[in-house]
Design brief:
Elements lengths: L7 E9 L5 E8 L2 H17 L9 H13 L5 H19 L9 H9 L6 H20 L27 H8 L8 H10 L3 H5 L6 E2 L4 E4 L2 E3 L5 E3 L8 E4 L2 H7 L21 H15 L2 E3 L17 E3 L3 H14 L9
Helix pairs in contact: 2-3, 3-5, 7-9, 7-11
Length: 336
């Protein structure tokens, strides 16, 4: 039988007790290298205080970091943004990896795959990685932050914010009286309100005698299509009720607390419904391109979201309104 290997043994002084006697910790290792590692571990734990906690999976730690250090202190929309960054981007790549096993070069290579994506997405991914590893370092899980010096790949150019062309305006205006969602389109077109603000409008927000619309609520889809706060405190404002829009709204007038554009059972309009409405409007206006049959989508048969891709977004109507106000000499701060 092979002779049983005897470990090397030693001891490390970590202090003295009340009587002045040495306090020691005994260590062992089957090689001198193992013995040296054991000595370093005792020194780090008892003397320098630099000992690392046991490694953890990135996914487990990041979920705890979000739940404890972020979620209680941020708005619903910001929480939704963090969840998307984690669930859609970071967890698929790193959830089952140990924190200390992920190297700086690997993180940089991952971030580089987002070249050509939006600047905000790249910022969210890098910022979240850096925050997670900063917390991990504070918790004694890593000695250094591997995300600290991540470089940002080049994002896609920012989309130009422009007014609508004359042809686009004519196509949109033609739908106000002919399309089932024409009133929704007209309200955004003639007021420059944000889409969520339009969906939050109630009939009582309209001052018919003064021809004004009081913008005082938004629909927060991050919280599940609930009435929420406006984007900023300055967003509460009055916008003019112009004559063409008044003519369209007045015949549909209902009780003051009813939403002008309600969803199911009078509740706020759902985000999915609003998206389908917009695509239906843009397709009718000839401002949407068909999605090729061989291009895969995640939508079921008959869902317009898998059939068309709009050329402009609802925010384009807001940009158009601001431009028209500026061109006419109006103080846009009064309406924005």
């Amino acid at each position: 039988m092979p002779k049983k290997k005897t470990p090397y043994r030693s001891k490390v002084k970590i202090g003295v007790d009340a009587q002045g006697k040495d306090i020691v910790k005994y260590i062992q290792g089957y090689t001198r290298a193992e013995l040296a590692q054991a000595r370093e571990a005792v020194i780090a734990h008892y003397i320098t205080g630099e000992a690392l906690e046991a490694d953890r999976l990135f996914g487990d730690y990041a979920a705890e970091w979000f739940r404890v250090r972020k979620e209680p202190f941020i708005s619903a929309s910001t929480r939704n943004n963090y969840r998307t960054t984690l669930n859609k981007h970071l967890f698929p790549a790193f959830a089952e990896r140990n924190l200390r096993a992920i190297r700086p070069a690997e993180l940089q290579a991952f971030v580089n795959t987002y070249a050509g994506k939006s600047k905000s997405l790249i910022t969210d991914i890098i910022g979240t990685l850096q925050a997670i590893y900063t917390a991990a370092r504070q918790d004694g899980l890593v000695r250094a932050n591997p995300a600290e010096d991540l470089r940002r790949p080049k994002p896609r150019p920012a989309e130009e914010r422009r007014a609508l062309t004359e042809d686009e305006c004519l196509r949109i205006e033609a739908l106000f009286n002919t399309h089932e969602h024409g009133l929704y389109l007209a309200t955004m077109y003639y007021t420059g309100m944000r889409p969520g603000e339009v969906r939050g409008l109630q009939w009582g927000d309209i001052d018919w005698s003064a021809n004004l619309i009081h913008v005082q609520r938004d629909i927060d889809y991050a919280a599940g299509a609930q009435v929420g706060e406006l984007k900023t405190a300055a967003s509460e404002r009055y916008v003019p009720l112009v004559a063409p829009l008044r003519e369209l709204l007045q015949p549909a007038r209902q009780l003051p607390t009813a939403f002008i554009f309600p969803g199911k059972d009078g509740a706020p309009l759902a985000a999915v419904t609003a998206r389908r409405m917009w695509l239906s409007l843009m397709a009718a206006a000839g401002l949407a391109d068909p999605i090729p049959d061989d291009e895969p989508t995640c939508y079921g048969p008959g869902d317009i979201r898998g059939q068309y891709r709009a050329r402009i977004t609802p925010h384009a109507l807001r940009h158009n309104f601001i431009t028209r106000c500026w061109e006419s000499g109006m103080d846009i701060m009064l309406t924005m």
